[in-house]
Every structure is written in structure tokens, then in C-alpha cells.
Amino acid sequence: MSKSDKSAKTNPEAVSKEAADKAHLDIRGKKLDLDILKATMGPDVIDVQNFYKRSGYFTFDPGYTSTASCESKITFIDGDEGTLLYRGYPIDQLAEYGDYLETCYLLLYGELPTQAERRQFDDAITYHTMVQEQMSIFFRGFRRDAHPMAIMVAVVGALSAFYHDSLDINDPEQREIATRRMIAKVPTLAAMAYKYSLGQPFVYPRNDLDYASNFLHMCFSVPAEDYKVNPVLARAMDRIFILHADHEQNASTSTVRLAGSSGANPFACVAAGIACLWGPAHGGANEAALNMLEEIGTPERIPEFIARAKDRNDPFRLMGFGHRVYKNYDPRAKIMQRTAHEVLSEVGHKDDPLLQVAHELEQIALKDDYFLERKLYPNIDFYSGITLRALGFPTSMFTVLFALARTVGWIAHWREMIADPTRRIGRPRQLYTGPVRRSYVPMSKRGTGLGADYHRD
Ligand code: ACO
What is the pTM (predicted TM-score) of this model? Predict the structure, then answer.
């Protein structure tokens, strides 16, 4: 008798408890009980790990909309409530009271640092911001007009060619060194990618500056002049990094986990994450939102664009509206909106017509039945494009900044996966709908004409 059978016999209440903790499935007459695993927050999950072995069926979920691909303790999102928590802490509190390096510590190690831990972590990051000098020669192989994301995919992957002493994923100390190296060096590489596109000399990092200020310094200073980092802009940059630091099992994070599941080194895995983030459906939306606001141009044209967004025959969508997970206000969008106002006031663009268009568009859409019924609210990208532009970045750098900030999230998830002793290589299955088995046909027996679906224009 199994343990659960025994408890059911002696305690009738246990029967209903046991029943409640199982999902019962009837597949063409075959009955199957599946365990329900408890989440601390959010939906519990039905455990289908041995489903194929027990039933002979696969589950089908392209796009993974109903699939928990892993167990994680890092980030929680409630899309209906509009909640985002890093290790249990609400994003708005971290953005208001914390800073990016503290957020990195939290995501990586699970707790906010003590003062001593914080000092030690800051030192470990600050004193590793320079990259191997040989890397600057590596940059010279790229065309000057290369997209900075193309450069990032290559140079972050290339870190594994420069830092051989932190590639052993089974050594916790090497994992730690690789972690700190990436958080320290990715901003330097991102700034180098930017400088390279401008044809300007690379600017070395400065250890007396905080993380965000140092990044602005590497991007915007030139050897010919003194550059003083504006603290309001540095704070805004830091907040943007916090808002983008992690977002649960999104496409790029899942890519990093899948790459890492084979035992690939962490630099290669993060390069895979950057490649995934580059796609317009993921990291490229803020650029699209900014382009849309520029196209709208003035508040008078908003009704025309709202009408287009609602028209089923027009593929146009309001960029920066809607989200796969958030069916309420994206909590990051509110902070981003405030940051946009702060940055625009600081740089003297508080009357920027784009901000006015954005504000009015948001107000109109928030009252419109089409958007209300479909739960389409502004997402983080709605205001981030305007803010990054005001900070001085060209649109081609927007996704690079996202990658910089998300590096810590990717690494936190990679570390969590590697440290799990039950880790297995990620290997999804498929619903095969191709031809059934057939025998090879020799060329002489395949006819002489073009196939039915062969077209030459
Ligand atoms: N403008 C107008 N209509 C929209 C929009 C929008 N931005 N987004 C969704 N809809 C409509 C769809 O036409 C559909 O209407 P229907 O039910 O009448 O057919 C309905 O809302 C549901 O749309 P889906 O595409 O099924 O929603 P999904 O959750 O799959 O898509 C997505 C989410 C891709 C973000 C979508 O809202 C979108 O394309 N938004 C604009 C792009 C954008 O801002 N992306 C950034 C996301 S945030 C990030 O990546 C950090």
C-alpha cells in the first residue's frame, strides 16, 4: 500500500486533501493522477514530468503560455494585479529606495546586502570593469556601421576566449568570478560598441564613479574635454537598469537557461540571451514606440492613430501598449513615466512635444472601450524610448542598454539552474505532422518536370 493510500484509510479528511492535491485526467479511458506542486505565490502547477512515460502522450504548448519551464525563487509577476517582485521586494520600492548594484546583489544572492556585503560587492564589481586590452583590437574587426547589438552578441560571447579561468561551470568559485566579471564588464563593452559606431576613442572606466555614472562617462565623455556626470541623469540611468534587471522566464532568460542546460559556459549563454533580446518583439519595442510617437507628431493626430489601432483590417498597433503577461498597468511603466518627466525637465525638454503626445495618447487610450476591454495598458517601453533619447542615446543603443541591465537577471537564472542537482538538459518534444515513413526514390524515377510547389519568379 502506498503512503497516500495508508493515510486515506486512517484519516477521511486526508482523502479530500489528497484528492485536492492531484489533477485527475481521463485520456481516452485511461485514468491518470498528476501531482499538483504548490507555488508560494501565483498559480500552482500540474507536474507532467513523467507524463509521457505514464501516458504515452506529449503535452502541446507552443509559445509556452501554460507551461512552467522551471522552478525559480528569483522574480514573481502577477500580470492581472500588475505586480513585479524581485526576491519578494516590489519593483517600485527597489526603484525608489535602492540602486542597481544592490538590486544585482539581491537577484544573485536572494537577500538585500548588509553594509559590509555591499562594500565588498561594490569593490568586486568596480575593480573588474576594465576589459582585456586585446579586446579593443578584436573590436577593430567590425565595420564602423555594424549594429551595436551585433557587436554585443560577438564580444560578450568572446569573453569566453579571454577569460579561460572562469569557464568551469562545476566550480562554484569560477561561477562567482564569471558572474562578477560579466556585471562589471558588460557596461564597458556596451560603451565601447557605442564609441566604435561614432568613430570616437574608447573611454576607460573610472573606479571613483558609481555604476550608472561610470557608464554615462564611458559613453559620453571624450578625451579632449572634461565631462561631469549629471547626478539626475545618472539616477535615471540607474533606475532604468533596475526596471530592466529581471523579468522571470521571458524569451531571452529562457534562452540563457536552455543554452546553459547543455553545460555551455556562462559567457556563451549570456551571448545567446543577447541574440534573443535583439528581436523586435522582445527588446526592440521601445524603439518602435518612439518611432510611433514621432510619426504621430502632434496631439491632433492621435484620434487617427487610435482609429487605425482599432481597425481590424489595419495591422498597425499602438506600440508600447499591451503585454503578454500584464493585463493591468505594467508596474514598471509608472516609474518609467516619472523618470521620463525628471529627465526631460533636467535636460530642458520638459515641453518636448513627444512627451505631450505620449501623455495624451495614454489618457485617451485608458478611457477607450477597445483598450479597456482587451486590458491594453501602457508597458515599460511606452516611456523608455523618450527617456533614453533625452539621455542622449541613439535608438540603435536602446536594446544594448536593455541587455546591459538584464545581464544580471540572465546570470541569476543561469546560476540557479546550474546549482540545482536535478538539472537536466532542456529537450522539448514536438507534435510531428510531417510525412510518414517512405522509401527513397532514385533520381531517374522522380520525373523530369518542376515540382508542383516550385515557383521561379
Ligand atoms: N494596439 C492595438 N491593439 C492591440 C494591441 C496594441 N498595442 N495589443 C494587442 N491588441 C489587440 C489585438 O489586436 C487583439 O484584438 P482582438 O482580440 O480584437 O483580435 C487583442 O488585443 C489581443 O492581442 P494579442 O496579440 O493576442 O495579445 P498578446 O498578449 O499575444 O500580445 C503584445 C502582447 C505582443 C505585447 C501586444 O500587445 C503588442 O503587439 N503590443 C505592441 C508591441 C509592444 O509594445 N511590445 C512590448 C511588450 S513589453 C516588452 O517586451 C518589454
Answer: 0.89
